[in-house]
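Input/output pair, single chain:
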Amino acid sequence: MPAHVEIDDRLNELETKLEVTKAQLRDLATMGAVITSIHEINAVLSVVMDMAIRLADGEVGLIMLEDDHELKVKISWGVSEDFARSLIYRDGMDLPDYCFKIRQTVILNELGIKDQNGISIESVICLPIQTSDACLGVMIIINKAAGGNYSEEDKEVLEMLLNFVAVAIDNSRLMKDKLKQQKIEQEMSIARQIQETILPQDIDNIPGVEIGAVSFPAREVGGDFYDVVKLDETTLIVVIGDVSSKGVPAALVMSAAAGIIRSLLSWHPEVSVSELAGRLNSLLSREIIKDREMFITLFLSKFDLKGHFLTYCNAGHLPGLFWENERGGICELCEGGPIVGQFNDVQFEQGKRSLTSGDRLFLFTDGLTEAADAGHNLFGREQVEQVFTAQIDLAPKEFCLKVKQFVDRFAEGSSEDTHDDFTILQVKVK
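Output:
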């Protein structure tokens, strides 16, 4: 054959190959656009498996992705995981795990083996699905449909395809994480609205007393709450509580507790604070909290300004601090009972104090006493009492803000992990 004829044939062969390559690149670009536009992983993998088998002229295949630190089959077209795992390749490792570990494509040709069903296995290509940062999984394709071996060209085309796949999987996971975060933020927004609805909005115009209260959640939503219920012109109920959980569950239980308290008071305004704690405990433990690992600590107090006395019930909460103005000293209000919502049919006791002008009740949650500084030292109850005594001349609202300033200075430089919700409330008898 003349030399120029051989050259022409070779050129025609190269042109044909170039056209095939161009067509493959166009197909890959189209495939890449399709793949990266899909955000559901299972849909991505199904499309990719079909594309890969067509591009490589393969018979069957499967895709395995890393899940909880091990490879798991996500899609399988005619290949079982058991068979893939039976292909022991090197260092005692099966082919999928080896490919995943070294992050390199493995081609096995002219195998001449049979699977458990007697089907002949002649060639296998196993490719990593990877980004620059991590290996996400592997793809395995078995046998050429028309016979023959897997080539470097097959490897290059499939690796280009899997680059798109890796991006699609990353996008899908990012989208999933984003949706999960949006759901959390939506739940937090709902919980925050619930919490804001529960907290009393107008406590400035109650005759005979002056009230200050502030609540500072450590995160978007806390487990603390307080309420002030005016029963008549000379009687009011003041409550502070702390739900053991956080977020939406805490907000819902908090809402339930506040609603039950107000409902019981509307039907039985004469109810004692100890009986109020008992009824609330029974309803929460039987109907709402039930067997969940959640509870509430409460301090309930009832101001009778006409009779000049205070009754109170401490249900597993930090004892309230009572300033006796005539004596000029502090005492703790401890009488009550256990936490609320866990133990049905519990009996609660109540304490009683006489009231005179200038007396004050200071209530707070454990986020105040457990506030920590940079050295993990706690603010502590002793310091709370010192602040209460030192700032006794401040109006209740100013006092609450002053306490917040003290705590902020104390906790400066500490990690966020040490911060907890804290709520403070002070009632002054005029």
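The two ends are 119 Å apart (CA to CA). The chain has two domains: 3-170, 191-429.
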